[in-house]
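Run folding on both entries below.
>entry_1
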Amino acid sequence: METMTREVSAVSNESSEKTLPLDRCALRVDACAGLARVVLEQHFQNTHDEVLHVAYALPLPADAAVSDFVFVIGERRIRGEVDAKQKARARFEEAILEGKTAALLEQDSSSLFQQELGNIPPRTNVVAEITLDVPLAWLHEGMWELRFPLAAAPRYLGPAQTTTGAIKIAAGPTSPRASLDLVVRDAISNGASPESLSHPLQCKTDASGVRVTFGSGNRVALDRDVVVRWSVAQPVPSIAVDTARPAGTHAHASSMFALCTIVPPLPASEPKVVPRDLTLLIDTSGSMHGDPLAQAVRIAMALVSSLSPRDSFELVSFDTQPTRWKSKVVAGSDTMKREGIEWLAKLTTGGGTEMVSGLVAAMADRPSEAQRQIVLITDGLVGFERDVTSLLLNQLPKGARLHAVGIGESANRALLAPVARAGSGSEFVIGLGEDPDRAAERVFAKIAAPVVTGLQIEGATLRGSGNVRLPDLYVGSPVRVLMELDPKGGEIVFRGTLADGTYVQRIDIPSLSEGNGNASIVKLFAKERVEELEMQALAAKTSSAASNELDPQIERLGLEFQIATRLTSWLAIS
């Protein structure tokens, strides 16, 4: 894979072209029970005799809440605050004109930010620190997965607007390196060590847990996602709850926030299998050339092989336009599966990523008593995420589920995450070096057997939920629900539909005083609410009507909970 880092231009007061080298990056991570607090440190050096200003693109996890922003210059440590986006920009530019050193972090999309540092003094080191609260992915093998991007790939914007070159995080005369200091506080099963598909690891156990660093001197290139996985020692309870309450100065100090992790029951025997109507939609655009397409095809083949004669399926590829394997859906017989695999093996790449037309073809409505599932397999490297998500919200057939499988070392989670949310499905990210059979098994395990559908939450203590639409509960795949509760606590009831009855789980949540609990939960609740409001905006018939109604709510959440959103930015001024 081509390295995704390049020089960052910095402009001095004399308007000459200079560079502000990124000396190194450091990831400091504390992970436990499905949540990670990540601090990304970026170390810059102004080696010139001029004051410099630098701006660059910065990839961050799509589902993370950006919870804090600090920069250190010399002996001074300046903590940022969240302000409305336009106001933050105006304050930043005013500070620059006044000769103050300032930093601004703005969200372009859920996984791509723009960071600016201004008036960096000559011969000075600067450290920018971004703190993120990141929900970990659960793998059906019983593992938590941390995925953090160190690079972002270019996006296809349409026939006349394809981006050129890689989106850069930063680089100087020599390529910068990243280090990792990850502490896993979960009990890891069978004494095994965390593993990675992306980088060599070095692990040791101390009083804090299992400490994980990169191998080879803890220095790696900024050219791919960091992926670390670890197995948990004990089965997770059917419902696990963690709570938090903000301090008295917070706008929501009168509320308690909770994260409920609902784990499906382990079946005593093979679960009942509902016949499936499966559509595989495979991206064959130019960006998928080589290893990405080969990986996508191998996963598609494995999914086709998993079908039973009771299932039906169709295959659709897309680049500039969609191409169907057959004119109609076929049964999952051995003959049809063999012919489908032969067709997949002949796929080639070329053309643009016209994903909208591909999805329209895959979502063609048809009568079916089977469970309708659409699996999109793509690197997601497009720049019109909003168009794709809006299409799903408005045209996905009733009862259908769309799952997004991202391929590659820097798959675009700004597309994958909202597409899966809009499709009431699941998101998967598959590395190029990952075993395709194992990856396909992970996808199959999560979509083949829904245990509980139509999940709902009830209870007098419930004030609101971060998740407006709860996903289905699949075998081996927990559902996480973020809630706002009365701080006095009380009973919460989860209800849903099983294949042979009703699902009911009750849990009593104790009271909590101000300033106690896991602060990450408060930030993640706000992030979840923002993402749901963004979904509502996409589903609205007119963007202006949605903006007038929903944008003020998004901005208020960003300000009150101090998180970055499309309408709020982090600003730090010396």
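>entry_2
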Amino acid sequence: MSRRMIVASAFALTCTLGLAAQQPAARDWPNYGRDPGGSRFSPLAQITGHNVAQLEIAWTYHTGEADIRGKRGGDRPFETTPLVVDGTMYLTTPLGKVIALDPATGAERWKFDGKVDASSGFGDFTNRGASTWLDPNARAGSPCRRRIFIATIDARLIALDAADDRRGAGFGIEGTIDLRAGLRIPPFERAAYEVTSAPAVVGGLVITGSAIADNSRPAPASGEVRAFDARTGKLRWTWDPIPQHPPDPAAATWRNGSAARTGAANVWSTIAADAERDLVFLPTSSAAPDYFGGLRPGENRYANSIVALQASTGRLVWHFQTVHHDLWDYDNASPPALVTIMRDGRRIPAVLQATKTGMLFVLNRENGQPVFPVEERPVPKSDLPDDEAWPTQPFTTAIEPLSPHRFNIEDVWGATPEDRAACREMVQGLRNEGIFTPPSLSGTLAIPSNIGGAHWGGLAADEARAIAVVPVNRVAAVVQLIKNEAFNIGEARQANGRLDYQYTYMEGTPYVMRRRVLLSPSGLPCTPPPFGALVAIDLNTGARRWEVPLGTLSGPDGKPMSHSWGSPNLGGPIITAGGLVFIAATLDRAIRGFDLETGRELWRAPLPAGGRATPMTYEAGGRQFVVVAAGGSGKFGDGDALVAFAIGGKAVKR
């Protein structure tokens, strides 16, 4: 063979291997979003619209963590999305356990205990899943041929042998890497730096972000994304979302030298990977602190962005900023999803990013250019003397907002005249000029609120049917900045007891921030229903295919209210080739199945606690299972149950 033919053959083989790595076995669920690109689509079709009503509980597994109480009580949501690969299920817990189960029966095979301190005061005390890697150079049956990686809440990256609970030989120090080590800005306290999402694994690298307490001060910790060798744990590259090198064009968007002293802009959501193109896609968050930008003037590029890096080197390929100079805690909280769509007769590799602003951005995966038009529109100015809001923000034009961008006093809603009057009183006097109205001393109405819009639950996409399904919230919040010298801690505690305010000192700034969701005295949102919805978008045209309320709220008497009201929700959807959407996520402690084409609810089953997680599906023993973690904490109810449904299965408790 000529050299050219050898190179061509090698290239073809490499591409084939890359494509194979992107497409998992139909029966499995080997990544958080099933495929490395996070589409959350399963080709399984045993369960369809004709038989989904026959789903029953097949088995239930309890982790035992609901009975463990620490400094923060039971506020540790069980949000794992398990993996199923090579005939074994792997799930994770908030306290750092990795548990291997028989996916057909729920029987425990082994358990690793990462021994996370239950009394630690982490702000988002959870773990959303593990990752796996098959060493292509290792012989079948050799130790650590398949590894399971978990990034614990206390910022340790741990490698385990998938066959048992042994730590990965030769990885880091005794199978562990301390993710706090080597940061540009070390965390000011242990609880200021954590990891909640599963790392990405691509090309023999384990790539991880972090979650940072970014409401606390301008420099709580830096948010570097890092890649480690999957065999040895050796650091291969580091990328800082706040540019540190003056030649970088984005450095000029952090004025007054603020890039060097600012923290966060981290990636706390899940990273999507395209092995064929050697790319990873990072959803970055806001720079610190969230609600005051006077110490970081400028556009603040790479924060609040979708960033494509070369996976093998960490080199920047492109970026697209979804919010300029964030003042609203509008992190890119949901994972990107990689699909191929048809546009003007062409197949386009795309990145889908649903945002807290209630917008769905569709970008070309290769260059970051919008596939559907995006325009910069003027937005309200800040009325603070020491901050300057960015004058424009990006808006999608072909895809209408998934949740409202404006809430006027005429729109105030309440279940009773007393509720409406109380809500009107709360809204009256707030600065309220629609989305992107900056925080103010008098108080600002924020719509969507800081939970979204689209939230960390993210979306699911069916490439063949060209449909993306997104859960959204439709509630507003009030955000107020209080001058430090005017802040009275006693009054704040009284107000917090009556009105459920959250306070943040934002140390190093002139202000204390307080916020709360706009709720009536009965506890219902002041915004009109539905308070939560499931929205389907046609990916070929950008048009809305359908929209339905998601969930049902209960009244003060505990009885369900109108089904048309929906529920605030946290958790994601999945789609199957059987034409179904499965999602839990709601306050009413149920999992539902919807018809993908119409949005009609076809099935609902109660859960022991709220399913504040993303479900998954797989095949074992000839049956298709749908599994969800039920243990959402707070109003979602405490729990530690992993519940598996199948057609005709007898309930088994473990």
